[in-house]
Amino acid sequence: MASSQISLSSSFLLHKLPSPSLHRHRHRYGQAIACTATPSITSQPPLPTTNFSAKYVPFTSISTPTTESYSLNDVVYRSRDGGLLDVQHDMSALKQFDGHYWRTLFDSRVGTTKWPYGSGVWSKKEWVLPQIHDDDIVSAFEGNSNLFWAERFGKKFVKMNDLWVKHCGISHTGSFKDLGMTVLVSQVNKLRKRTTIPIIGVGCASTGDTSAALSAYCAAANIPSIVFLPANKISMAQLVQPIANNAFVLSIDTDFDGCMKLIRQVTTELPIYLANSLNSLRIEGQKTAAIEILQQFDWEVPDWVIVPGGNLGNIYAFYKGFKMCHELGLVDRIPRLVCAQARNANPLFQYYSSGWKEFEPVKAKTTFASAIQIGDPVSIDRAVCALKESNGIVEEASEEELMDAMAMADSTGMFVCPHTGVALSALIKLRGKGVIGATERAVVVSTAHGLKFSQAKIDYHSMGIEGMECSYGNSPVTVKDDFGAVMDELQKFLS
């Protein structure tokens, strides 16, 4: 049988191992997937001598040209009119090298131990933060996460043979947030070391995963981290991470949106650098997951990519990664994007369902997908742009649907978070409607490790969630210490 997963070579190796590139032949109509190994690229092409650059520009400059711009060394989060910013790369300089050059360069860095290119983010340094010195980079060799062929889930639950799960949660702190945080903390490290800008620490509001990533990378760079968390709204596994990494943690009696309001006020009064996705630097790291997916498919473009959405920076990050690959000639199209939201926190879904008439924030209700329990997302404009430009879709999942989908995935060998359950539930619905075809290639983005949400899984499998059938629950069977009693239960199971 063919390998059930395609993974970029481990970045945690202490010595260079051969890293064959896996060629997966595109299949249709249910025939078996075949993977064959070909020799890896043993040397990278000459590094470009061109001076690449990037700057902040108003996000609206995508559609409305402007002369307003800022250096990445400026501490600025909003444009003059209060809008979002975006990191704009010098595309004319990047276009001096064709798509074949960039594909070859990026592929040559897979599995290397050469600093910092063994990181899945910094292997694309020229497209991420081109003007930073290697010595200023703070990295745990994040990225290079497994692209898992979800063969059994696909065939059993959605009648698909070409379904993949991008396990971004298999990372340094257990979520995709590492991809963006390595970029942001590296830039802060540079500013503290090489400029006179007074930055006493880095702060964020968080539903869990952002604070874990921020505190870990700041600890590695010896930079103080400050975290605002909504009290009693995140898992203990998420809470312990910033505490263990010596962050200053404030547990505040409000929701994420309240924490976000407070941290924005604080960062205007104190020289604390804001690390939330309002800061567009993080998107530069997160977009590399999209590039990585293309690499893992030997630069073939999937038909669909489904991303859970809360504060909505990630759906734009995936769009931006795919768009850069298309614009620079690495691929000939971009996939259609789906943003999946929990019904209890679904402002984007409501906006989409209204035909994009008028956006209205909502008061987010409690959801097992706690990291996307956000009613007033900062990156709403970014998400709308990504979806419109990719002919995208927004779907939602109820609490029962997302928990059932999580359990279904786990029953086929995965161990996913509730947010991945939201995305899988969206896939199930879109397959049921015939929007996603049986022979199309779809990638579901798994944003965090299931171990962060073990209590939710315990509650589900113990049938302990009020008002939920827990249809795929699997409770242990209690049996007395007796051979006959054990055999009776085994006979029931085996029959």
UniProtKB/TrEMBL annotation:
Protein name (database record): threonine synthase
Role of this protein: Catalyzes the gamma-elimination of phosphate from L-phosphohomoserine and the beta-addition of water to produce L-threonine.
CDD domains reported in the protein's UniProt record: Thr-synth_1 (cd01563)
Origin organism lineage: Eukaryota, Viridiplantae, Streptophyta, Embryophyta, Tracheophyta
Keyword hit for Lyase: yes
Reactions listed under catalytic activity: O-phospho-L-homoserine + H2O = L-threonine + phosphate
EC top class named in words: lyase
Source species: Buddleja alternifolia
A GO term, aspect molecular function: pyridoxal phosphate binding
A GO cellular component entry from the record: chloroplast
Cited InterPro entries: Cys_Synth/Cystath_Beta-Synth (IPR050214), Ser/Thr_deHydtase_PyrdxlP-BS (IPR000634), Thr_synthase-like (IPR004450), TrpB-like_PALP (IPR001926), TrpB-like_PALP_sf (IPR036052)
Metabolic or biological pathway: Amino-acid biosynthesis; L-threonine biosynthesis; L-threonine from L-aspartate: step 5/5
Gene Ontology biological process terms, A to Z: threonine biosynthetic process
NCBIfam families the UniProt entry points to: thrC (TIGR00260)
Cellular compartments annotated: Plastid, Chloroplast
Keywords for the protein's UniProt record, in alphabetical order: Allosteric enzyme, Amino-acid biosynthesis, Chloroplast, Lyase, Plastid, Pyridoxal phosphate, S-adenosyl-L-methionine, Threonine biosynthesis, Transit peptide
Subcellular location, principal: plastid
EC code: 4.2.3.1
Family named by the database record: Belongs to the threonine synthase family.
Domain Tryptophan synthase beta chain-like PALP: 139-447
Known cofactor(s): pyridoxal 5'-phosphate
Pfam families: PALP
Subunit structure: Homodimer.
